[in-house]
């Protein structure tokens, strides 16, 4: 019972109070580049949720059942990146088969999920914080959902700005995007203190 409550707390914290993107600033490159349109943001967000949840679980199993027993923990970076790369290839193949338009819209950023530091960061945080299997799954899924919420919200704001653009010329493009990201990070900090998970 307590493990389930702790896992729920980890899940909630990963989405809101400890958002991997807006609190730890991991995965900013694809967040800033792909968040121009809502459709592509939703597609990339769902891909990141799937990859982050699955790789967190598999990396937990690899870490505790292979790397720790054989005392080869120093290989965790290599092992984690191999798992992430394999899942990204799987997601890329599925998206290419299901939606050519989404595949074309995501472009180079889909294979770049492999080097998205948020996904590797989720696996490393999970190991460093010594989460159980259930908590690791909750953290991976919550982190992916939190990242997806952030990029979809940013896409909505940027779309609205394009329609009613009253942004000063010097702030158009990257300038206003970074300002919005900072304001979003401040907004998510408002959730701090609701649940504290270490």
Given the helix and strand composition, which structural class is it? Answer: mainly alpha
Distance between the termini: 19 Å
**Overall geometric form:** globular
Count of discrete structural domains? 1
Count the beta strands. Answer: 0
> How big a fraction of the residues is strand?
under 5%
Overall average pLDDT: 88
| Biggest sheet overview | none
Radius of gyration: 17 Å
Helix content: over 70%
State the order of secondary-structure elements, H for helix, E for strand.
Answer: HHHHHHHH
**Low-confidence spans: pLDDT under 50, at least 5 residues?**
none
Please report the number of helical segments.
8
Notable traits:
mainly alpha, 8 helices, 0% strand
Task: Explain what this protein looks like in three dimensions.
It is a single chain. The protein has helices spanning 2-15, 28-34, 38-67, 76-98, 100-106, 117-128, 133-163, 174-189. The protein has one domain. It contains eight helices and no strands. It is globular, with a radius of gyration of 17 Å. By secondary structure, it is mostly helical. Helix 1 (2-15) packs parallel to helix 7 (133-163).
List the helices and strands and how they pair.
Blueprint: H1 2-15, H2 28-34, H3 38-67, H4 76-98, H5 100-106, H6 117-128, H7 133-163, H8 174-189
Quick structural summary:
With 198 residues, this protein is mainly alpha-helical.
């Amino acid at each position: 019972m307590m493990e389930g409550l702790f896992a729920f707390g980890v899940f909630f914290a990963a989405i809101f109070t400890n958002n991997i993107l807006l609190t730890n600033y991991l995965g900013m490159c694809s967040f800033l580049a792909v968040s121009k349109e809502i459709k592509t943001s939703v597609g990339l967000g769902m891909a990141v949720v799937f990859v982050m949840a699955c790789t967190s679980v598999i990396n937990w199993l690899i870490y505790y059942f292979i790397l720790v027993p054989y005392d080869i923990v120093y290989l965790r970076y290599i092992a984690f990146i191999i798992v992430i790369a394999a899942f990204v290839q799987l997601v890329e193949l599925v998206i290419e088969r299901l939606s050519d338009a989404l595949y074309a819209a995501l472009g180079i950023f889909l294979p770049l999920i492999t080097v998205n530091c948020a996904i590797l960061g989720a696996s490393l945080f999970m190991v460093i914080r010594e989460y159980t299997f259930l908590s690791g799954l909750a953290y991976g899924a919550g982190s992916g959902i939190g990242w997806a919420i952030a990029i979809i919200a940013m896409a909505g704001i940027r779309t609205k700005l394009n329609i009613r653009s009253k942004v000063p010329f010097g702030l158009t493009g990257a300038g206003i995007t970074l300002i919005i990201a900072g304001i979003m990070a401040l907004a998510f900090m408002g959730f701090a203190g609701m649940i504290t998970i270490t």
